[in-house]
Amino acid sequence: MQIIEQQIKTKLSSSAKFYGYIPDVSQEIDPAAERPSVLICPGGGYVMTSDREAEPVALNFVAAGFNAFVLRYSIAPARYPVALLEVASAMKLIRKNSAAWHVDPKRVIIAGFSAGGHLAANFATSWDRDLVTEYGYHADEIQPNGLFLGYSVITSGKYAHVDSFKNLLGDRYGEPELMSKVSLEKQVTKSTPPAFIWHTVSDDTVPVENSLLFAEALEAHQISFELHLFPKGGHGLSLGTSATAIKSNGYGLEPTVSAWRDLFVAWVQNNI
């Protein structure tokens, strides 16, 4: 397996780290193999990027037949839209190297957990708008073909995870126009890619209504999506297995939700 580590540079930053996990192509099995690929944005309230939602998730995707990439994007005190541009540059990098990395260019998925899910959804709803008109990216080089959201921050309204938005916006938190722009249930368009979404109903940090609002917006725009709601489990469960549970207290071990990986793989096979 090829492991890649490099810095992501944009017009606003140069501090993001990009990691790639690319299985070798077997000359015996399929020398021309192209794989679906996932760019993962770990969560962390825009003040950290969680280890539990980074490499362990990437390796799990690799085991399922994907190329996996992790973006350790800029966090506070960096402010919007720094991380968003880093996602665009990471996506551009993946597409630029699609042949060398055996990436299927028609199956590149942006993924995120918690606040990383907000970043992923922000990118998925803006890839052909501001990123093109204001920052000079070409739509065809950054287009996401699918969107994965795990217990994601979505809305800046009634069900907001307030600290994520304060960390993202800094002194601009509360500006009506900007608050609306980063409330992503309001930003879905016809060009938003198909989505796979999961959440726990009992999430006591990011209310499940975040995912419900986004799903409702997708439905209103006739965007295909698959939504899974699990009846129990807190926030930040990642894989729900011992691989991502916190050793000191066992938090994150929730077998009920661990089914999401296989559900996601099947969704990609059938929809992307």
Give an overview in words.
The protein is of the alpha/beta class and 272 residues long. The chain has a single domain, classed as Rossmann fold, CATH 3.40.50.1820. It has 9 helices and 8 strands. The chain has helices at residues 55-63, 82-96, 115-124, 130-133, 139-142, 162-169, 176-181, 209-220, 260-271; strands at 2-8, 16-22, 35-41, 67-72, 103-113, 146-150, 195-200, 225-230. The chain has an 8-stranded mixed beta sheet, sandwiched between helices. β1 and β2 (16-22) form a beta hairpin. The radius of gyration is 17 Å and the shape is globular. 49% of the residues are buried.
Q: Any guess at the CATH architecture?
A: 3-Layer(aba) Sandwich
Strands ordered across the widest β-sheet: 1-2-4-3-5-6-7-8
Helical residues, percent: 25-40%
Give average pLDDT, whole number. Answer: 97
Element-by-element helix/strand order? EEEHEHEHHHEHHEHEH
Structurally, the number of domains stands at: 1
Percent of sequence in beta strands: 15-25%
Largest β sheet strand count, sense and barrel closure: 8 strands, mixed
Number of DSSP E strands: 8
- Measured distance between first and last alpha carbons: 24 Å
